[in-house]
Amino acid sequence: MLDPLAIPIQPTPHGPGDASRQSDLGVSAHAPLQPRFDSVRCISPTGLHRMAYTEWGDPHNPRVLICVHGLTRSGRDFDAMAQRLGHHYRVVCPDVVGRGRSDWLLDPNFYVMPQYVADMVTLVARLGMETVDWFGTSMGGLIGMALAGLPNSPIARMAINDVGPRLDPVALERIGTYLGQVVRFGSEQEGIEQLAALAQDFGPHTPEEWRTLNQPLLREQEGHWVARYDPDLAKPFLNTTPEMVVAGEARLWQVFEAFQGPTLVVRGEHSDLLTRETVTEMQQRGHHVSAVEIPGVGHAPTFVHDDQLRILEGFFLGNGAAA
Questions:
Q1: Cα–Cα distance between 247 and 64 in angstroms, integer?
Q2: Domains and CATH numbers, the chain
């Protein structure tokens, strides 16, 4: 098993004033940050749609960290991370289209990677940034890789959480067993508990942590509570052929190898989506790639707890916390 505190993380080359900002990690002396809610209008081949996002920290901070969630999650997954890093970054957490507070697409066939990447380009333009740093969990990591490998990409530094160019077929089959199902819960608390049961691979969390993670994923509908995502986003996933998987993997390796910036690959020790062999291959084929394995966790680490957050501080702030 890889020791997450034994793998060197290269420091971020920021300006000389950052040393003083790095000295107050742990943010115990800071007042809690308050989220701001906004949205940006994006385009698909069938029309316009609104992508919502949650923003934390100084809105004028030129250092921007974009955090993108997994397949059926939301940008509120990163509340704890934003509290930690929001005193150093302007942290922006979008709800990918079809999830959270964002619109649903008129044509579900466009719930695919090119659409997600295009929406993120629109978001970066809205933020007015030439460069951003990126943290992506699962699907959010794939979106980051696809965007980072494009010519003139805005991504400077990227952390990829429990995903890589090669996805384990068993895990994809597991995801297909629940994706797109419409499940109604009798109460919000029942929904929170059921989503927690589905996400046991995230590792141990307190009831309050599960509430914080899962409450944003639920909405009330006709006296019941349902998941806050479009069930039709499963259509492109379920229509994927083996040939499409092979072609997609080849393309993901291509864009991953094209990215020149520092990259951190995070793997949960018991992950069924990202294998250790793939992590090793990513280190061999990529540029400036570090790797960390989180013990006792499957797919995927939530970065709610201090030991995981310190790893991100070491990578994004260069303070050596993960060295």
A1: 32
A2: 31-166+249-317 (3.40.50.1820)
